[in-house]
Amino acid sequence: MAVNPEAVALLVLLHPFMDRSIPLDLRPVVRWLTTGLVLIACMVIIGGITRLTGSGLSITEWKPIMGALPPLNEQQWQEAFDKYKQIPEYTLKNQHMDMAGFKGIFFWEYLHRNWGRLMGLVFIVPFALFLRRGLLRGWLRTRTIAILIGGGTVGALGWFMVASGLQDNPDVSHYRLAIHLTAAFTVFSLVLWTVLDIRLGRRAFSGDGTAMARHARWLLALVLLQIVWGAFTAGLDAGRIYNTWPLMNGSFMPENVTAFGNWWFDLSHHRDGVQFVHRNLAWVVAVGVVAFAWVYRSAAALAGVWQLLIGLVVLQFLLGVFTILTQVNIVLGVAHQFGALLLLAAVLAAVQRTGRSLSATGA
């Protein structure tokens, strides 16, 4: 039987937080939230495939309810294809596409949207039941409401992203893509933090005053910055150029990186500059994570976490290198995006464990 390495990595990451010390009345809540984490992780994988297969603009309308049904006959398929033919992606890039090709890209966007609908049901229905049973009280009720609002916001931002590629441009805005992805990672982080609060005791985001806490928060900011530039790289297809390592076609900084003479534009809007930032920031993240984990490896707060930090950042670095060398092989590209989520989760675990202690979990 085949083993999914991504699923194994997620289970290994969650294992230290899922033992019998969780209060009996909150175990169903933790199972619910953990299911949500797995669903969000799967959504990141599906979203990555949708992006890398160029499927994201295949559905040109946003119908939250009726959109759950796919075209049911050839006439409906033709209507959907005709709508796709009216957008710039088809007229400028995909004029060769036939109905079979359209159905192929439609599948991934359809799955992406309906996975979001499934996640909404998985969060909303148990939330209502747990709220009625009195399991969600005080901070936990407030937190889960925030998670629900955040999930809805991610869905709205997804359409905000898609809309940017339907009229004037054949691609979605890479800025909107970054906002959408960052919002999804934020909701994942909020759910994970809630699980950690229940399992380990509530912690504030502010540090406990130690140097380790300060360094953990700087590390989190660094990882988030790299995630944003990773989204820029994906949105601009910047990984398909300069497919050499460690230099960019023989240069540390090719002349074209600064072709426009505007640093912000060059490094955030220009493919060459975006890849330059992303690949070199990867070195900073890797060194920062490894140094942090090694320096504080004997700290009780990092028990079971520091090894994960080192293993995940090395894996993520290697996935990034091979993604570049293969001109963004789909499997490697999706694994690299998923690896960013796992690394973020490990860093968040370190941040949560070094946070200022708050009141009891059930308060």
Helix content: 55-70%
Sum up the overall morphology in one term.
flat
Determine the structural class based on helices, strands and strand pairing.
mainly alpha
Round the Cα radius of gyration to an integer and report it: 22 Å
Task: Give an overview of the whole structure.
A two-stranded antiparallel sheet has the order 1-2. Helix 2 packs antiparallel against helix 7, helix 7 (174-200) crosses helix 12 (330-353) and helix 8 packs antiparallel against helix 12. The protein is built from 12 helices and 2 strands; from the N terminus they run αααααααβαααααβ. The chain has helices at 5-14, 27-52, 74-84, 88-92, 99-133, 138-163, 174-200, 211-235, 263-268, 271-295, 306-325, 330-353, and strands spanning 203-207, 355-357. The longest helix is centred in the N-terminal third of the chain and has 35 residues, at 99-133. The model has no long low-confidence stretch (mean pLDDT 92). The chain has 363 residues and is mostly helical. The radius of gyration is 22 Å and the shape is flat. It folds into 2 domains: 25-200, no CATH class; 205-363, no CATH class.
Topology:
Blueprint: H1 5-14, H2 27-52, H3 74-84, H4 88-92, H5 99-133, H6 138-163, H7 174-200, E1 203-207, H8 211-235, H9 263-268, H10 271-295, H11 306-325, H12 330-353, E2 355-357
